[in-house]
Every structure is written in structure tokens, then in C-alpha cells.
Known about the structure:
Layout: E1 12-14, E2 20-22, H1 26-45, H2 55-72, H3 90-105, E3 114-115, H4 120-145, H5 150-173, E4 179-180
Antiparallel strand pairs: 1-2, 3-4
Amino acid sequence: MKIYTRTGDAGETSLFDGTRVSKADPRVATYGDIDELNAILGLARASEGIEVVDGDRLLQVQRDLFALGAQLADPAHKISGRVSKIHLGSTETERLEQLIDELEAGMPPLRHFILAGGCPAGAALHLARTVCRRAERSAVALDALERLRPEIIRYLNRLSDWLFTAARYANFRANVADVPWHPRT
Length: 185
């Protein structure tokens, strides 16, 4: 099988049910943002110092995001019946909340807004957080057009919180201070 099919050369793509849609379709944009987030998490997993956050947890999030993207590409639920683990539920969101609590317990509380950056792992996680927020906005926009499962938006919202906390934790463990934001004087 060749990687190129030429079926998208006119600006359309196929969903899992065979429906052809524009590559600018809000559904395609949403799972594209999730795919981009997944790729950035792969970069984060390769970053120096990521072991303090636990690369296995990032790998699990990548698996969750792949399932989420597949779910969004399957509006007619053609594959979800064959792949029962395609739907994220409250368990995954609750797992993120537990991870946030664990990381926050191991570092000083946040007392001010901070600028993205820090050690390589922290900076990569901050970048992932911003792309996660974009994916969340795309999901909210798609939800306004056609109802999504509420857990999709909840998961993305909590994931961005976890990525922020993980970035701070990576910086903390690398002994790199977060840079506080100060308004211009």
C-alpha cells in the first residue's frame, strides 16, 4: 500500500464512514489539532528531563488522543462498535485530575502568572498545553455545530491543566525557576 492516494488532491478527505468532506471542515480541523498535539507530545517525550514527569504517562495520553481523533473521524460510529476503547470517558479525565494533584503536592504552590519556557521538557510541555487549548477551542466550535460527547471537551480541558502542571513540575525538578509575568511598568 502506498502512502499517497491522490484522493485528497482536490482538498477533500474521507471520514471512517466513507463520507467525503472538505479538509477545512470543522471536524477535520478538530482532529487535526489533536493530531498536532499528539505529535508535540512525542517531541516532549524525547525532551531532555522528561523522565521526571514520566514518559509512560505521556505515552498513555498520546494513546488517548489517538482514540479521540479516531472517534472524531467516525461521526457515524462505524468503527466504535468494533473498537470499544475508542471512547474516552470520565475515568481518563479523573486520571488526569489525580496526576495534577500528585504533581502539585510535590512543588510550591503557584502564586503568579508565569511565562512559558524553562528546561527542554518544561518548554515542550508548555507548547503542548497551548496546542491542547487550540484543540479544545476547535472541539467547542464543532460541538456548537453538532453535539459531541461532553467528555471530549472535559478531557481536553483537564489535559491542558495537566500539561501546564507537568511543565511546571519538569522545571521545578530541573531546578529551573518559572519566570513570573509582570506587566510593563
